[in-house]
């Protein structure tokens, strides 16, 4: 209650009531566009990339996206004014945020089977094992904005994305013979990447838009993060699923029911692993 009263009294009002955006058609089109593309990415490995369902899903998603952009350019009350992306700062910050959260959530999604099925951690241990990310995140995020003002967004943002890429690459080297030390190092690098990349990207979007558009800037920032998370989970899940199913094709000596269960989830693979020697 105290925080609510404080915010109500002291935070500036950045809204513009004359430009309140109620755009039901835009909301529906954006839902269909994101839903169609994400469904295709997630279900492609299972249904088959050439199946009519997946092709239709991608087609509907792309068409909905094109219609959404066209509609938003012409409606007087757009859900998302796509003309904002003519500003270089908005484009750069948006692209950076989308890539960051695609990589970040894709990475997090893949750490779950690694920690659970390879390292054998329980829920509490899995949560605690991610804490080293804070060692890289907090100092990096603290100096990211001042550093951006000195050397520019391009340099700091690129540094953050390179660190994320490095963390992802090191993560691919983890296996059954790896110990937690290497994973902790990966998490520190991962945290530093987010710390360097995310704050400058958010600020460059906010600075690029006028005061009355700060609500739009905040909403755009949130949408890009959520969209990146959805795409990252969908992509990493699809890649993991395809690789996992391919890796068990050569396993023999088990009943069809057992293999069907193993194909459905890596958790079932642990039941037959001891018998493989």
Q: How does this structure look, described?
A:
- This protein is mainly α and 277 residues long.
- The protein folds into two domains: 20-80; 86-277, Up-down Bundle (Growth Hormone, Chain: A), CATH 1.20.1250.20.
- It is 77% helix and 0% strand.
- The chain is built from eleven helices and no strands.
- It has helices at residues 2-10, 24-47, 52-74, 88-118, 123-129, 133-151, 153-172, 180-208, 214-247, 256-264, 266-272.
- Helix 4 (88-118) runs antiparallel to helix 8 and helix 4 (88-118) packs parallel to helix 9 (214-247).
- It is globular, with a radius of gyration of 22 Å.
- 27% of the residues are buried.
- The model has no long low-confidence stretch (mean pLDDT 83).
Outline type: globular
Level-2 CATH architecture of the largest domain = Up-down Bundle
Q: What structural category arises from helix and sheet content? A: mainly alpha
CATH homologous superfamily heading of the largest domain? MFS general substrate transporter like domains
Strand portion, in percent? under 5%
| Unreliable residue stretches | none
What is the H/E order?
HHHHHHHHHHH
Number of structural domains: 2
Describe the sheet with the most strands: none
Instruction: Please work out how many helical segments DSSP would assign.
Output: 11
Q: Radius of gyration from the CA trace?
A: 22 Å
Question: What is the share of helical residues?
Answer: over 70%
Give the CATH topology of the largest domain.
Answer: Growth Hormone, Chain: A
How far apart are the first and last residues' alpha carbons, in Å?
60 Å
Mean pLDDT over the full residue set: 83
The CATH class name of the largest domain reads: Mainly Alpha
Query: How many DSSP-defined strands?
Result: 0
């Amino acid at each position: 209650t105290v925080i609510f009263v404080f915010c109500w009294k002291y935070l500036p009002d950045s809204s513009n009531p004359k430009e309140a955006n109620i755009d039901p058609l835009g909301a529906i089109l954006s839902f269909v566009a994101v839903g169609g593309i994400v469904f295709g990415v997630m279900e492609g490995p299972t249904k088959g990339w050439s199946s009519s369902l997946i092709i239709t899903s991608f087609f509907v998603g792309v068409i909905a996206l094109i219609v959404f952009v066209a509609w938003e350019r012409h409606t007087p009350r757009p859900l998302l004014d796509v003309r904002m992306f003519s500003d270089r700062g908005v484009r750069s910050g948006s692209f950076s945020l989308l890539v960051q959260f695609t990589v970040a959530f894709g990475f997090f999604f893949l750490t779950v089977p690694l920690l659970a099925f390879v390292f054998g951690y329980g829920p509490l241990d899995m949560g605690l094992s991610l804490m080293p990310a804070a060692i890289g995140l907090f100092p990096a995020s603290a100096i990211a904005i001042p550093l951006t003002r000195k050397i520019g967004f391009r340099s700091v943002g690129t540094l953050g994305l390179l660190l994320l890429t490095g963390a992802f690459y090191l993560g691919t080297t983890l296996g059954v013979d790896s110990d937690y030390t290497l994973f902790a190092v990966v998490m520190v690098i991962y945290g530093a990447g987010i710390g360097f990349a995310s704050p400058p990207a958010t600020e460059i979007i906010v600075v690029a838009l006028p005061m009355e558009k700060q609500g739009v800037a905040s909403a755009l920032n949130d949408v890009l993060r959520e969209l990146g998370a959805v795409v990252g989970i969908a992509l990493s899940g699809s890649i993991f699923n395809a690789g996992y199913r391919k890796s068990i094709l050569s396993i023999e000596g088990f009943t069809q029911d057992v293999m069907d269960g193993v194909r459905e989830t890596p958790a079932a693979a642990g039941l037959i692993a001891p018998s493989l020697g």
